[in-house]
Each structure stands twice: as C-alpha cells, then as structure tokens.
C-alpha cells in the first residue's frame, strides 16, 4: 500500500514539474540584435539588446548622467573584431570587448572592457578597462524610439559606429589597417611571384591607381593584363592610368576599345563611363 502511495506521489510530482517546466513564448521587452560590418579587411560584430523609450525620458533620467551604462539592455553589449583595429587613438587587438558608456550632457566616455561576461553593468570594475576615451554627443537627425547601434560613413579602411536613442546621437570611428596587408599580398602574389595572371595584375594595378601609388608600375601591370586578356573593365582602368600619366592619345584609344567591349558585353554602365572619359580627351 505504501509503495502504491509513493508511486502515485511520484507520478503527481513529475507531472506537476512538467507543467511548470513549460513556458509561454512572449516577445522580449528589449529584443536582442546582432549586426556585422566588414571594415576594410576586418569583420566587426556588435551584439546588443534594444530597449525602447515607451514615453520615458531617457538620458539624464532612465539612463543617468555620469554613471556607467551597459549601452543597451540585458547582458553587456559586446564588440568583436577579427583583426586588430584602432579606436580612439589606440590599437585594439582582435577579440571581443564589452562596450560601456558614461553618458554626459555634452560628452560621453566610451569604455572597452575586457570583461564580457557581466549582466549589464552589475559588477563593472574599471580595472577591467582596456581603453576609455571621450567623444562629443550630438542631436540625432530624427527621434529614435528604440535604441540603435549602426555603422555609418564607411570607407575603405574605417567606419563610424553610431549610438542613437531618443534625440541623442554619439559616434566614434573604428579604423582597420589595410594598406600594409594589401601591399604585402601584392609583393607576395605579384612582384615576388612574377605573376602573369591577368586578374592579379589588374587587381594590383587598380590598387596602385586608386591609392595614387607608383603610376608607372600600375601601367606596367595593367598593360600586361590587357594585352593578354582585354576585358572592358580592365581596359577602362588602362585608359585611366594612361590619362594619369599624361598619355592622352593612348588613353583615348583605350577608352574607345573599352567602350566597344562594353557594348559587346551589353554593359551600358561601362559604355557610359567610357563616353564620359572620352569627352574629357577630345
């Protein structure tokens, strides 16, 4: 009889536990978000949660001035870099960092912490800071009901990371080393290897032209590339390099050839590009 009672109790206990283990799916008050951006040759990822104002006054009240803020909600916001970057004038090694901020009326302190395991700012210790610097805050171009982190003003080697909420916008620049890496690849794959590959020669010439390096070397590479395998985009680059070197007749002929190749390939964009270039050469 006792054993039957124990069995019945165990069944009741387990069934009750199963009921309590079930959860109702509900939307998060501050939904999680993850954004990534290629900055130069670096992958930058932000993992954060997005609280909404919901009629509340944010900075100076919900988020007090002069106090460490998690820069979002829930767990600490994290910034991850696949290679070394420069932020606030300091080299930041590849890895993950917690992004804390200390809002002020006109200036914010940006903090990169080595401790990424905290819930918000609870337990924050400035001894874990890897880097901190100050930026000016500004007025957002529109009102942001929900906190937003975004990448803006992206160049070949940098991007601004913008923090926007309510009527406030704060941003700082993330820079990635590009030129030394690209030049090392060009040396290895093009110069040292003495490549004859038209694609590699075009890439090297294009980088030299775009970054205003040795134009004579750029011409040597693009001439070899287009002599072996002329494409409308490679011949167009040849025309631009020739123009940069003052070779107007050669540039005109290359632009005309690129235009014809673009027509054959049914690429109206390059036809138009060449027509504009040709006008400057007449």
TrEMBL record:
<protein>
    <submittedName>
        <fullName>DUF2911 family protein</fullName>
    </submittedName>
</protein>
<dbReference type="InterPro" id="IPR021314">
    <property type="entry name" value="DUF2911"/>
</dbReference>
<keyword id="KW-0732">Signal</keyword>
<feature type="signal peptide">
    <location>
        <begin position="1"/>
        <end position="21"/>
    </location>
</feature>
<dbReference type="Pfam" id="PF11138">
    <property type="entry name" value="DUF2911"/>
</dbReference>
